[in-house]
Design brief:
single chain, mainly alpha, 3 helices, 30% helix, EC 2.7.4.6
Length: 73
């Protein structure tokens, strides 16, 4: 769904493959990281660590999708 971190290697139909424009060559020439349109964690444990790193507790929202009330349990 997200695609390879390097946009040129990302498959068509992925977010990075369809919408990212940066390249590793441009990043290396400017001594910077490759700009990405989206971030994704590799595992749920990695996501938990990254959430703690990048967000404050009051920035995390809990919500219910509108269709959740329609599920029959």
């Amino acid at each position: 769904m997200v695609g390879n971190t390097i946009p040129l290697k990302a498959n068509a139909g992925t977010i990075r493959g369809d919408f990212s424009l940066d390249s590793a060559l441009a990043a290396n020439r400017r001594s910077r990281s490759v700009f990405n349109l989206i971030h994704a964690s590799g595992t749920s444990e990695e996501a938990e660590d990254e959430i703690k790193l990048w967000f404050k507790e009051d920035e995390i929202m809990s919500y219910k999708r509108v269709h959740e009330d329609l599920y029959l349990y």
